[in-house]
Amino acid sequence: MSTTTPAGEHFRKRSTIHAPASTLFAWHARPGAFERLTPPWAPVRVVARVPGTDGGSITGRARVTLDVPVVRIPFLGAVSTRWIVEHRDYLEGRQFRDVQIAGPRLDRLFAYRHTVTAADLERHESFAERGTLKVAITGATGLIGRALVPFLTTGGHEVTRLVRRRDALAPGDTYWNPERGEIDAAALDSVDAVINLAGETLSERWTPAHKRAIRDSRVKGTALLARTLAGLPNPPKVFISVSAVGYYGDGGDRILDESSPAGTDFLATVARDWEAAAEPAAQRGIRVVHPRMGVVLAAHGGILERLLPPFKLGMGGKLGSGAQWMSWIALDDLIGALHFLLFTPSLSGPVNVTSPNPVTNAGLAKTLGHVLGRPAIAAVPSLVLKLTFGEMADTMLLAGQRVLPRKLEAAGFEFRHPKLEEALRWELGKGA
After folding, report:
1. How far apart are CA 331 and CA 209, in angstroms?
2. CA-based torsion, 338, 340, 343, 347: positive or negative
3. What are the φ/ψ torsions at residue 194 (nearest 5 degrees)?
């Protein structure tokens, strides 16, 4: 394939963001749909030029210009040859890894990225008068953490990651090991907030060993953090320790809110003990919040990523009867909700962090098929799921919760993607 026009014409596509220079570093770091849409022949080289830096520091508001060299190919139009974002965080002097992102639909790419950045800045602006925070985060490399960390740093907040491997520590990180009961308590003294996202994955067959890992990673880690924070001379004002709607067990068709009782299955007992493990922090006077999260919809991880391959092949469909309810939330709204919880002192204890519009499993299959333009008429019998996944199928795939975020809405949080189709189109880059 030729990479030039007959005249050898090349051109550059330019897109400019007017924002603090540090915004650029989150512009690509926030995971999004377009990372999934990279044809092997169509990357672009993007070089960020950051005026307004002096001796390695940001001076005022800088104009960030992204120059994208693109090659025009006959009959195909503008196609690039490689996409690499190169930048340096002048605020911390930290070198970030290169990031592979999608290529040929540059107009949509820039529109999507600018929209994400503008929406993030709008969320930060709503609490700008509160100032910036020092925030410590566990689970920063997971699905949620990878989006939350750049979101917070975009708003000027200082983030400390708690990392379990000493050899993986980067500048600004601090060490902890819940299994061994080890933590650098001094590094947490005087932080304003701690967000606990750590937890072993649920999406594997539940052997006895894996069930212990699921429980211990949540309960032991939370207990270690709570005891440590309670003993600090200058403890944080808020401890956000995530939980899950699995707390309610299989709710059938009943509408569940924060006042509903706990279930009795494995995940419900784990969630109950997980939340109880934070009690030492609450007794110390720290505001403790338990975001009971629903299924997180993100194109680059979690359940949605696993569903995409069969649905794109037209082989997707409901699980079992499809009547089980699924309480979900778009990753973008989850990040916004965690930010909202940081700055809303009236919220404590359990807070459902789910869309106000739960759907059945059959409804999810139908909507996802519609968004992808594929049929969704296949079905996986309950017996097959139970034989394949054992107890996990009964608890996670064939049971469900119809949860409403009563406390979050009453406090004034506004969802950006409250409807399932809208959320899927956003996360999958299928919008206008």
Report:
1. 30
2. negative
3. -125, 130
Which residues on adjacent β-strands are paired with residue 402?
255
**Cβ–Cβ < 8 Å for 356, 409:** yes
Q: Can you name the residues that pair with 88 across neighbouring β-strands?
A: 95
Residue 9 pLDDT greater than 60, yes or no:
no
* Helix extents (H) in 127-207: 145-154
Q: Which amino acid does the sequence have at 137?
A: I
Please give the distance of CA 364 from its chain centroid, rounded to a whole number. 20
CA distance 372 to 366: 10
Q: Single out the residue of 194, 195, 213 nearest to residue 203, CA to CA.
A: 213
DSSP conformational letter for 80 = -
What does DSSP say about strands 88-89 and 94-95: parallel, antiparallel, or unpaired? Answer: antiparallel
CA distances in angstroms from 405 to 259, 358, 410, listed in the order given: 11, 10, 9
Q: How far is CA 120 from the centre of its chain?
A: 13
Residue the block writes with tokens 């107009």? 107
pLDDT on residue 428: 83
Residues in a beta bridge with 240: 195, 289
Residue 135, Cβ neighbours under 10 Å: how many? 23
Q: How far apart (Å, rounded) are the C-alpha atoms in residues 428 and 432?
A: 12
pTM: 0.80
Residue type, 277: A
pLDDT tens digits, 66-83: 444 444 444 444 433 333
In degrees rounded to 5, what are phi and psi of residue 208?
-55, -40
CA angle 77, 81, 82 (to 5 degrees): 135
Instruction: Reduce the DSSP state of residue 319 to 3 states and report it.
Output: strand
CB 50 within 8 A of CB 67: no
- Long-range pairs, 204-211, Cβ under 8 A, ≥24: 204/392, 205/388, 205/389, 205/390, 205/392, 206/266, 206/389, 206/390, 206/391, 206/392, 211/266
- What percent of the chain stands above pLDDT 70? 73
Task: Name every residue whose Cβ is closer than 8 Å to that of residue 7 and which is 6 or more positions away in sequence.
Answer: none
Token representation of residue 187: 């590094």
Alpha carbon of residue 175 to chain centroid: 22
Residue 253 CA to residue 84 CA, distance in Å, equals 48
Cβ neighbours of residue 117 closer than 8 Å, sequence gap 6 or more: 17, 19, 23, 26, 27, 30, 154
Task: Report pLDDT digits (tens) over 159-204.
Answer: 999 998 888 888 889 999 999 999 999 999 989 999 999 988 887 7
